[in-house]
Specification:
This protein is of the alpha+beta class and 261 residues long. The protein has five helices and eight strands; from the N terminus they run E-E-E-E-E-E-E-E-H-H-H-H-H. Helix 2 runs antiparallel to helix 3 and helix 3 runs antiparallel to helix 4. The N and C termini lie far apart (45 Å).
């Protein structure tokens, strides 16, 4: 891998997201290869991607679907790229969908273990994504804090505001330490499911955003368009990650209860 291509992870589908029960894109055997048919949506960098990792059903038995990941280049016959989805947030990374109609790929296009892509790729990727997104989230929170400091310096903040700013700064530094420790574990090969610090990142960031928003509002900087855009991005990220976070918290709680003291 030389980092010369933009790759989009194509799991979610229109109206259903990424829940395996509702995914319908299929890959049917065709000689030595496969033909893919289906539609993918909400793809980060989808409109500009050179290559798509498409998750498709390759078998189904007793109501259980088995998924395989395929590398599908943008110019593959039968693949069409939809126009970017207009979103009021996360604008640096365009989002959009693709449609696959009898799209041919060779057998060597399979990425990873066949028939096990959901368990070995989709689920672990969610944990890695949650951990890595802490970096951009911290960047946005740092920028919001800088805006708050600038606005407060221009006025005459009371003791309560000064105290709140100090508390927020300390909390952000704490979150930075948590994120760095979790990233170090990931670099050492620890699976995301074994890094409980990742479960603390989103709740801490939500608290930070709420408190920074209140400071900005009281400082008179609430109408500045830059903080408003950052707040919209962070709110969207929190909303998108909440369901997955709750599921991971529940699994951790169940594991703790099942282990003997």
């Amino acid at each position: 891998a030389r980092g010369r291509l933009t790759v989009a992870f194509a799991v979610s589908e229109p109206g259903h997201g990424a829940h395996p029960r509702h995914l319908s894109t299929r890959a049917l055997r065709a000689g030595d290869g496969f033909r893919l048919t289906g539609e993918k949506a909400y793809l980060t960098n989808g409109p500009i991607a050179d290559l798509y990792v498409v998750i498709a059903i390759t078998s189904e038995a007793a109501g259980r679907k088995r998924f395989t990941a395929f590398l599908v280049p943008r110019r593959t016959p039968g693949l069409s790229v939809a126009a970017p989805t207009p979103l009021p947030f996360l604008r640096p990374s365009p989002h959009g969908g693709i449609e696959l109609v009898d799209c041919p790929v060779p057998g060597k296009a399979i990425l990873g273990e066949a028939e096990a892509a959901y368990e070995t790729m989709v689920i672990p990727f969610g944990g890695v994504e949650d951990l890595l997104m802490t970096g951009p989230i911290l960047g946005a929170l740092s920028r919001l804090e800088a805006h708050a400091i600038e606005a407060l310096r221009a006025g005459e903040p009371d003791r309560t505001l000064r105290s709140e700013l100090g508390a927020v700064h300390a909390l952000r530094e704490t979150l930075t330490g948590v994120a760095l420790a979790a990233a170090a574990d990931l670099d050492r090969g620890v699976a995301p499911s074994g890094i409980p610090q990742t479960l603390a990142g989103l709740p801490l960031a939500v608290v930070l955003l709420e408190r920074l928003t209140a400071i900005l509002s009281r400082s008179g900087a609430g109408e500045d368009p830059v903080p408003a855009r950052l707040q919209a991005d962070l709110t969207a990220l929190f909303s998108l990650g909440r369901r997955r976070l709750l599921a991971r918290q529940e699994r951790l709680g169940a594991a703790l209860l099942s282990n003997p003291a």
